[in-house]
From TrEMBL:
Its main location: membrane. Belongs to the binding-protein-dependent transport system permease family. CDD domains: TM_PBP2. It comes from Parendozoicomonas callyspongiae. InterPro entries: BP-dependent_transpt_permease, MetI-like, MetI-like_sf, OppC_N. Keywords: Cell membrane, Membrane, Transmembrane, Transmembrane helix, Transport. This is ABC transporter permease. The chain crosses the membrane at residues 37-58, 111-137, 149-168, 174-192, 234-260, 280-307. It is a multi-pass membrane protein. It is found in: Cell membrane. Pfam families: BPD_transp_1 (PF00528), OppC_N (PF12911). It comes from the Bacteria. Residues 107-307 form the ABC transmembrane type-1 domain.
């Protein structure tokens, strides 16, 4: 064997595939390339999220800038309608704001509330579920009873009561300034039991395995065992729950905004846009409510489709591809 062959074989032995190469060879990527619904849903979600977060660049006008709004431009139909104008692609709302720009900014607001609320749910639920499942005993019983009590109340009922009391106690002006923070806190805190119960079930199965016993024998602390050894093996259900919960959080925010307990009209979300135009739908200005409603339905639909696909891929018993 020549020296060149020896060097070539040594290079092949020492070559370690990178993360991208390992990802392309994974079952996750293979299933994604074979599922057209997942691909289309992912592309639509990326386009909608990208357009929303680039709204300051893509939007023709800033709906938050009162100087650029002319009340004389209110309720102009979309550009393809008979009385529409080319400068307003999707028409204008009842305040004269360009609906296309307002939808971009509103989608960004809805996505921010949805993602942040789910991050809060995940943080609370994972910490409580890990601790309950790992330590067990009275702490586990107490936290699970708390979760049962909270699950007996619907998220919407809790949110309506809390937000209505806050708005009545501190006034509409302060509430409009803290609306996004309040929505994130209320939706996030109301839904933590979904994560806690799922993670607890996974921890109860994982903590009996040999690698956990080995970690205890090596003298690792409970926190390190829970977060560095058990938690990585419980990520699959967390990812599946998160996709579903993002869609639920966006729907909850839209419902609260429709009821007047969400984002103010001056900083609209998709829900507040639908609410503000609902009273005009029977007077002929259907686009103010219908177009944001279609955007909301498409956004929630693609997230749910991705969640269903992710659930099937991460659960081999369910996946039939």
């Amino acid at each position: 064997m020549s020296q060149a062959d020896t060097i070539g074989q040594a290079a092949q032995v020492t070559h370690v595939p990178g993360r991208w190469e390992r990802f392309k060879k994974s079952n996750f990527w293979y299933n994604f390339t074979k599922d057209k619904v997942a691909q289309i849903s992912f592309v639509i979600l990326i386009l909608m999220a990208g357009a929303a977060f680039l709204s300051p660049v893509l939007a023709p006008t800033n709906p938050y800038d009162l100087v650029s709004i002319d009340i004389m431009d209110s309720e102009i139909p979309p550009s393809w309608a008979e009385e529409g104008e080319e400068r307003f692609l999707l028409g204008t709302d009842n305040q004269g704001r360009d609906l296309f720009s307002t939808i971009l900014y509103g989608t960004r607001t809805s996505l921010i509330i949805g993602f942040c609320a789910v991050m809060l749910q995940m943080f609370l639920g994972v910490c409580i579920g890990l601790s309950s499942g790992y330590f067990g005993g009275r702490f586990d019983s107490f936290m699970m009873r708390m979760a049962d009590i909270q699950l007996s109340f619907s998220t919407m009922m809790v949110a309506i009561i809390v937000l209505a009391v806050f708005q009545a106690s501190f006034g509409a002006e302060l509430y409009s300034e803290l609306a996004m923070l309040m929505l994130i806190l209320v939706i996030g805190i109301a839904e933590w039991p979904q994560y806690a119960r799922t993670i607890r079930a996974s921890v109860l199965a994982e903590k009996k395995k040999e690698y956990v016993e080995a970690a205890r024998v090596m003298g690792f602390g409970s926190g390190r065992i829970m977060f560095r050894h058990i938690l990585p093996n419980c990520l699959s259900p967390i990812l599946v729950i998160s996709t579903v919960q993002i869609a639920n959080a966006i729907i909850s925010e839209a419902a609260l905004s429709f009821l007047g307990l969400g984002m103010p009209v001056s900083k609209p979300s998709l829900g507040s846009l639908i609410s503000s135009g609902f009273e005009y739908i029977f007077s002929g200005s259907w686009w103010i409510t219908v177009i944001p409603g279609i955007v909301l339905v498409v956004l929630v639909l693609v997230i749910n489709l991705l969640g269903d696909w992710l659930r099937d891929v991460l659960n081999p018993k369910l996946y039939k591809g």
